[in-house]
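Summary for the lay section of the report: proteins are chains of building blocks that fold into shapes. Here we show the chain for Ferredoxin and then a coded description of the shape we predicted for it.
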Amino acid sequence: MSFERFRSGPRISVDNDRCELYAICQAEAPELFELGPDGRLRYRRRLAERDYQAAAAAARCCPTQAISPRGLPGDRGIELTGKPEDSAPRRAEPPRQR
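The coded shape description reads as follows.
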């Protein structure tokens, strides 16, 4: 049995040790995250192309930085910080020479 299908493709992961269940991710991407009545965070790990920006926005807005998107197209050098209202990931700027 090959486990490659579980590792490939764009996905998100949540570090449960860092997550404080503020549910900001649910507000940013309700199609991906849900805080259940039992107090547990449920989320869809595998991402479709239409979910990329919502996943990046949820990761950016998480106050504990517990959300990690992986395997998004062109994610090299993308920085998941910035204004929450801007859902497009920003490219990291190289350090300035002094």
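Put simply, here is one thing we learned. Residues 61 and 84 are 6 Å apart (CA to CA).
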